[in-house]
Amino acid sequence: MDNNELLTQIKIMFDERDKKMDARFEQMDAKFEQKFDRFKSDIAVMFEQAEERNIGRIKNLELLVKNDVGKKISTLFDGYALNREKQIELERRIDKPEDDISEIKSETA
User: Fold this and answer.
1) Mapping DSSP to helix (H, G, I), strand (E, B) and coil, where does residue 1 land?
2) How crowded is residue 100: how many other Cβ atoms within 10 Å of its Cβ?
3) 39: helix, coil or strand?
4) How far is CA 71 from CA 65, 68, 75, 86, in A?
5) Which pLDDT belongs to residue 106?
6) Helical H runs in 1-69?
7) CB within 8 Å of 7: residues ≥ 6 apart
8) How many Å apart are CA 39 and CA 28, to the nearest integer?
9) CA–CA distance from 20 to each of 8, 12, 17, 32, 72 (Å)?
10) Cα(first)–Cα(last) distance of the chain, in Å?
């Protein structure tokens, strides 16, 4: 076998190996694309589920604020109003004896 024939045989061997490698890489690419597509769809599902959970949590917080915190704020305002009414009543009670004392002073003077 001369050098040209040997080189030709080597080229044929490499070409066959290249074809096998190309076929193998194509299979690997196809598997990778399938797995990547599955991964993308899994991620999308996870984001949807997380979004639904977050929406549920937001609704729960809204209900908590509306029902619990709103009632507490209303109760606080009612308490402040009651304290103010009592303060006014106490001021009136304090002013009455002072008025009485002023009246007595004016009668004795």
Assistant:
1) coil
2) 10
3) helix
4) 9, 5, 6, 22
5) 75
6) 3-64
7) none
8) 16
9) 18, 12, 5, 18, 76
10) 151
78-96 pLDDT, tens digit per residue, is 999 999 999 999 888 887 7
| The residue type at 1 | M
Q: What is the pLDDT of residues 11-56, one digit of tens each?
A: 999 999 999 999 999 999 999 999 999 999 999 999 999 999 999 9
Token pair in block for residue 99: 């008025």
Give the contacts of 27 (CB within 8 A, at least 6 positions apart): none
**DSSP result, 52-71:** HHHHHHHHHHHHHIIIIIHH
For residues 16 and 79, give the distance between their C-alpha atoms in angstroms, rounded to a whole number. 91
* Amino acid identity, position 15: D
